[in-house]
Amino acid sequence: MTVQMEQRETVSTAVELSGVGKTFGTGGSAVTALRDIDLRVAEGEFVCLLGASGCGKSTLLNLIAGLDEATTGTLSVRAARPSFMFQEAALMPWLTAARNVELALQLAGLGKAARRERAAELLALVRLDGVGDKRPHELSGGMRQRVSLARALAAATARGQQGPGLLLMDEPFAALDAITRDALQGELLRVWEATGTTIVFVTHDVREAVRLAQRVVLLSSRPGTVVREWQVDGDEKVLHEEITGRLRQVITSHAA
Taking every annotated instance into account, which residue ranges of this chain make up the domain ABC transporter (predicted)? Predict the structure, then answer.
């Protein structure tokens, strides 16, 4: 399995997977989570990975992030350092919102003045200007996720790469109430349009996928492989119904 991490002045592809598979364990106890994944994500593209629970969506994100290695196939990631955003905000509780964002910049080697300036810019971008001195326990769940988004964006762009950053998001809004989730989905779209960040977003919610993505990629039940892809354009209601029907077929065939 080959992983290439590189930075180029002009590239059209942020992530490319060819024949990627992942098996955990060996022998009779081995479990194959992913099989023959072929996927290309363009720079600046917003792609949603959709599938039932246990289909390998999170495993695929971990491979792209470099947190795990594929068993088969090749994976090329053209970003200085992919950034991850989880379902939980996972902020450092003893640090303020601003310092949580600055931490990603500090790890990338930025000086104190540059860190403070960039953190303030990112908090303003996610509409949290004025709360940089608050600690996580003083913020609502939605606000903590905004801080997490600002920190992820800081990590994705900290090294000043020429192309857009790469943000990997593993069901980041699943734990939020419906109203807050809806608001943050809108904020994410606004931030994506403002920054041109490449986003690979994992969800099991068809409505969320259709609302957010330029392209929806459906994975089969385990072992996960790409079943079908849809470009999101035209009538979203019709597309929602079509994707939902195909997802039901996937789940039903697995249950049978």
Answer: 15-246
Q: Is the pTM of this model over 0.70?
A: yes
d(CA 69, CA 62): 8
Q: Specify if 27 maps to a domain.
A: yes
Same domain, 30 and 49: yes
| Closest by Cα among 84, 70, 57, 109 to 166 | 84
The tokens for 172 are 């980041």
How many residues does this entry show for the chain?
256
195 belongs to a structural domain: yes
Phi first, then psi: give them for residue 151, nearest 5 degrees.
-65, -40
Place of tokens 């106890």: 29
* CATH label of the domain that carries residue 31: 3.40.50.300
Residue 136: which domain range? Answer: 92-160
Helix (H) or strand (E) holding 119: helix 112-125
Mean pLDDT by 10 residues, the chain (256 residues): 45 89 89 95 95 89 93 88 84 94 86 90 90 94 92 76 76 89 91 90 94 95 92 89 91 69
